[in-house]
Specification:
The chain is an alpha+beta fold. It contains seven helices and five strands; from the N terminus they run H-H-H-H-H-E-E-E-H-E-E-H. The protein has a five-stranded mixed β-sheet, covered by helices on one side. This is DUF484 family protein.
Length: 228
């Protein structure tokens, strides 16, 4: 008798596990649904019990979808944090302004999978290389009227920029940039990241990591100048 009960219980668990992994089972075999006993009160409330059961199932499915989204966002943020950390470590190893600037562009291009990176530095430093990714602005912010409002604030901007701004930042590559993120490097200059994907950078997207990158690059450039 005991063995039979144990066998029945074991079989029940097997059936339950199978149904959990195949929630569409009764849809595929609707004739079985009519033969199953549902755990609800008898009488006129039977239809209400079924409605509540379905409602709970729908809510549970929605919660599972939201949880999956949160897990995906957390995973993406973790990867971004690792990349920001790698950028910070690379800049700590840099001992000149040139090496710092090259490290910024190299890490952002490789680790962050960006299509275009531009570093705009105020002032004139002859030791820096002539390169498409670097612009020296001898007159400082006054030479960038397109970004006058932006340079008055500390918040990064992201999204689709005007053709004039894209041309100023990316020059001959402006036509290939369909969304961008721009960061102010305090009084040192600006850092711009461009993408051919129009949805890569969007208005209203979180700017925490952009602020972290801007603060790291600003501090690294200041440190390199002090060492020099």
């Amino acid at each position: 008798m005991t063995e039979t009960l144990l066998d029945d219980a074991t079989q029940g668990r097997v059936v339950a596990a199978y149904l959990k992994s195949h929630p569409q089972f009764l849809s595929d075999y609707p004739e079985l649904a009519a033969q199953l006993t549902m755990p609800h009160e008898k009488g006129a409330v039977a239809s209400l019990a079924m409605y509540q059961l379905q409602s709970l199932r729908d809510k549970n499915a929605e919660l599972e979808r939201r949880l999956a989204d949160l897990i995906a966002i957390a995973a993406d943020n973790e990867k971004l944090m690792e990349r920001v950390h790698a950028l910070t470590v690379a800049l700590l190893r840099a001992n000149t302004v040139e090496v710092t600037a090259r490290s910024v562009v190299a890490k952002l291009s490789a680790d962050f999978h960006t299509d275009q990176v531009r570093l705009l530095l105020f002032g004139n430093q002859p030791e820096l290389p002539r390169a498409a990714w670097l612009q020296q602005i001898p007159g400082g912010a006054a030479e960038l009227p397109e970004f006058a409002d932006f340079l008055q604030q500390h918040e990064p901007v992201s999204g689709r920029l005007s053709p004039q701004k894209l041309e100023r930042l990316f020059g001959d590559d402006a036509d290939h940039v369909h969304s961008a993120a721009v960061m102010r490097l305090d009084h040192t200059g600006m850092l711009a990241i461009g993408s051919k994907d129009p949805d890569r950078f969007q208005p209203g997207m979180g700017t925490l990591f952009l602020k972290m990158i801007a603060a790291t690059v600003t501090a690294a450039l200041a440190r390199a100048r002090d060492v020099a």
